[in-house]
Amino acid sequence: MTKNKSQLSLLMGAAFLMATSAVGPGFLTQTTSFTQTLAASFGFVILISIIIDLGAQLNVWRIIAVSGKRAQDIANDVLPGLGFFLSLLIVLGGLAFNIGNIAGAGLGTNVLFGMSPKLGALLSGIIAIAIFLVREAGKVMDRFALILGFVMIILTIYVMFTAHPPVGEAVIRTFAPAKIDVLSIITLVGGTVGGYITFAGGHRLVDAGVTGKEALKEVTKSSVSAIGIASIMRIFLFLAALGIVAQGLQLDPSNPPASVFKLAAGMVGYKIFGVVMWAAAVTSVVGAAYTSVSFIRTFSSVLEKYHKWLIVGFIAVSTLVFVLIGQPVKILILVGSLNGLILPISLGVMLIAAYKVKIVGDYKHPLWMTIFGGIVVIAMAYMGIYSLVNGIPQLFE
To answer: Which InterPro entries does this UniProt record tie to the protein (predicted)?
Structure first.
């Protein structure tokens, strides 16, 4: 019983680690910004992104669990050197995202306590570092993500109800959109399962020893739960923003999500935004640092031995870059799009690995998952190139 309870805790921890890694400042900014431009039709974008997210996540977690290896080692087994290339992309994307996450934490503390964003960011970075300095860092990280994940969802639900969104219209436009925006789809997918994010929970399970064919049922449930948690948060935030937009109220372009919370629930809503922003940001800081370092720790025994200090260094560098330079909102959307471009590469590698006996042994990967994953790879590659050519330059006009 104790073992089952312990494994359930690990699986939930992995799900919340992935979900809270996805729900960061960029997630809040992207969701509210796109709701303002697409209104109820943004529901369609969320629906398509959830389907793509599931296609990516189910394949990635399953193959990591069966092989018992982290993604970079799987990639190197598929083609020598590919794991190093993938790790470079992941770590650079993770670092860029983490600067934005730290910025979000600073913004949250500014709203809550009136302190300068840079001081708030510094204190938040110290809190994130402290998690990895305790003896049972993995368990503390799991519990931290789980508790703050619940806090974010509950507070956002409250704000959603106060915003009085047109739910009926949202449901209709989710299946019959008035307009479709490709950039918003790739940005959402990039922000939910792009870059390091889809590997956060999978690598956590490898660290905890939840691997092998016998663990597949639980791993699949955990991977679906992770997407479910992130999607629930996305839907509630979308409905809250839609309620404000439908009333004809204007969002502050410098901080769209704060506007939603404040317009929906006044000063109480603004303070709730501070809590949600800080929780979203600091859990993403933890997830980004942990997962990014997990992509390089297996490359040498020295890196493996001192991986905790690498995580600490990763957070410290992210914090110092923000404190010294700053981080504009547009970069969060841009990095989300670029992270979407990493997805077809990483998922493509995983699908090839699923049919390599030296990686997965006698495991037979379900054909429907391969087809599902293949469609996601093609769709994301197409949309990624499309957004680079057409969408991203518009952000900087």
So the answer is: NRAMP_fam (IPR001046)
Assigned domain for 1 exists? no
**Surface-to-core class of residue 82, CB atoms within 10 Å of its CB (0-12 exposed, 13-18 middle, 19+ buried):** middle
| Residue 29 falls inside a structural domain | yes
- Residue 2 domain flag: no
Residues 6 or more apart whose CB falls under 8 angstroms from that of 80 comprise none
What is the predicted pLDDT for the residue at 1? 41
Distance CA 197, CA 102 (A): 16
157: helix, coil or strand? helix
Domain containing 314: what range? Answer: 8-395
CATH number (domain holding residue 200): 1.20.1740.10
- Residue 122 exposure: Cα atoms within 13 Å on the Cβ side: 8
Contacts of 148 (CB under 8 A, 6+ apart): 20, 279, 282, 283
pLDDT computed for residue 330 by the predictor = 55
What's this model's pTM, rounded to 2 decimal places? Answer: 0.87
79 occurs within a structural domain: yes
Cα–Cα distance between 251 and 329 in angstroms, integer? 14
Residue type, 313: G
Residue type present at position 369: M
**Cα dihedral 379, 226, 290, 370 sign:** negative
Of the chain, the end-to-end C-alpha distance in Å amounts to: 59
